Amino acid sequence: MPLGRVADVPDPDILIRARGLTKRFGDFTAVDGIDFELRRGEAFGFLGPNGAGKSSTMRMIGCVSPPSGGELSVFGLDTVTGGAAIRARLGVVPQEDMLDVELTVRENLLIYGRYFGLRRPVIAERTARLLDFVQLTERADDQVEPLSGGMKRRLTIARSLISEPEILLLDEPTTGLDPQARHVVWDRLFRLKQQGVTLILTTHYMDEAEQLCDRLVVMDGGKIAAEGSPRELIETYSTREVLELRFATAEHDQAAEKVAHVPAERIEVLADRVLLYVPDGDAALDAVRGLGLEPLTSLVRRSTLEDVFLRLTGRRLDDG
Amino acid sequence: MTAQTAPRGRPLQPGAESAGARIMAVRGFKFWLVNYRRTWRGTIYSSVLGPILYLGAMGLGLGSLVDSHGTASLGGVSYLAFLAPGLMAASGMQTGMDESLYPVFAAVKWQKTYQAAAATPLRPRDIYRGHILFTTMRLTMNMIIFLLITVAFGAARSPWVLAALPVAVLTGLAFATPLDAFAVTREKNDQAFSVIFRFGLIPLFLFSGTFFPVAQLPAWIRPVAYVTPLWHGVALCRSLSLGTADWVGALGHVGYLAAITLIGLAAGQITYRRRLYV
User: Fold this and answer.
1) Helix axes B124-152, B40-54, angle to 10 degrees
2) Which residue of B has its CA nearest to A4?
């Protein structure tokens, strides 16, 4: 074993290891003793509403926020003592872009490459490749300020890749983008994943987590509520199908009570809808109609991570 | 400034790392340099115009009135020769303040340049020292310009005036390092800065011996002038330019300015870390 390594790292493919990781701000506990591991080559996600402790966790991994308790090692190094050495191997896409908006696209990459101590020709070669990858080649010499939100996000992703990092940290990579821009970003991230880049991301969009993450943890109130692949989580915490019913506002409460007689694994009554967790949605709908209820609309769909989250926390993801 | 070698996670490909990058603060400095490429022309104009206007209006214009009444209290030299080195030190202070307060606040609050840099191998202290390096460069530029204009006005009386250049730079740093350290702590707004300019810079500029000897002030207020860094810069620059400097006095002034600069550097190392590592 090489000198200077933490002695208890048996598996070199475990890039991040957290044990009882805690972050407190005064009396407020943002991250409350979480355990997780990140393996080389996987896309790992933290799914949870705003304030769940996702960003605090990411900042601790990025070595810009000292943990208040527990252990956190990245590449086998302690994040407090090995911060600079760890950051040299990480790429970070923060929630805010933090670009130098008065400089050009190319200058932003130049400065970042310089921070990593890269030589100009190396930066120039990577810049050409990365701008092509994020489809910004034509804007290379334009100022950043007038670029769209989606373009700025893509530039931030390109910037994070200038050092050819071993792990890419993405904090809410598509929050605030319009649907089209989100899909472009997802497409680029998916390609990175295919190239074998290890991704770790936070999101409060369940579709983002389902599309990008091989494995994820559901976070709520600073704690990990569940862990697994999207499919495992859905299989463990939800049913195969969900029947969504919407009733006229006046009848909503009454109908919700009656629906309780339909055999279902679980029933969630939301403000505007009733959700029935069942193996067979169409059969359940027939049973609802059999009770003499006629919903305004009905939808049979597959379970999603949204349902997992609702089951685990009793709240919807976008409730915040 | 101690040399910090770059931490190495894994060996970079041969030749990928740039030579100067081994000193981490140099990497932070390069950001300011790239940024300065956009604005340098404008700053040169004001660096040239300012001294010419001041030395013309005050040194020559007002100076002709002063000189006609006798300059015994100035040490028997012309008002221009008295004023120019003092103004040079004051100009160092001005540059030091200009380069520290708003640029630092912009980097930590508006643009978040600092937070972006903190995600890289740079540590808060490297980010801080990188900015101080850039401030030192700007001070050196401005003070060279000021010195050339002083000589062109015929206001220098001794070749020792060359030594006033690093002294004026140090005077600027004695303001820049503590004010950098302070500016980075501002969370919400920059209101404190206009207070510093109005009630700090302007009184110092007027009453630290730049325009008239501190001995002309009422006795009870003189000690206030003596503790300000600017007075030390003014006094030393002037004695060098007039050729009247002595070693003991010079070492005392340099020691005082260096002490303030180092205290600022130590403070900034703490305040930058507290602000960037939350």
Assistant:
1) 40
2) B9
CATH code of the domain containing A265: 3.30.70
Please check whether residues A81 and A148 belong to one and the same domain.
Answer: yes
* CATH assignment at residue A100: 3.40.50.300
Task: Report the residue of chain B nearest A75, measured CA to CA.
Answer: B9
What strands, in cross-sheet order, belong to the sheet with A90-93? A90-93, A167-171, A198-203, A43-47, A215-220, A223-228
Same domain as A173, residue A34: yes
pTM here is 0.88
- Residues A38, A162, single domain; the answer is yes
Q: Contacts of residue B38 in chain A, CB cutoff 8 Å?
A: 102-103
Query: What residue numbers bound the domain in which A154 lies?
Result: 14-229
A112 CB neighbours in chain B (<8 A) are 116, 120
In a shared domain, residues A115 and A245? no
- Report how far residue A233's alpha carbon sits from residue A236's, in angstroms, rounded to the nearest whole number: 5
Residue A44 — very low, low, confident or very high, per pLDDT cuts 50/70/90?
very high
- 0.90 surpassed by complex ipTM: no
Is the same domain home to A203 and A291?
no
Let me know whether A51 and A182 are in one domain.
yes
pLDDT of residue A313: 84
Q: Do A115 and B121 touch (CB under 8 A)?
A: yes
Confidence of residue B1 (pLDDT cuts 50, 70, 90): very low
Residue B48 in contact with residue B149, Cβ under 8 Å? yes
pLDDT tens digits, one per residue of A302-311: 999 989 988 8
Q: d(Cα B140, Cα A71) in Å, to the nearest integer? A: 47
Total number of domains constituting chain A: 2
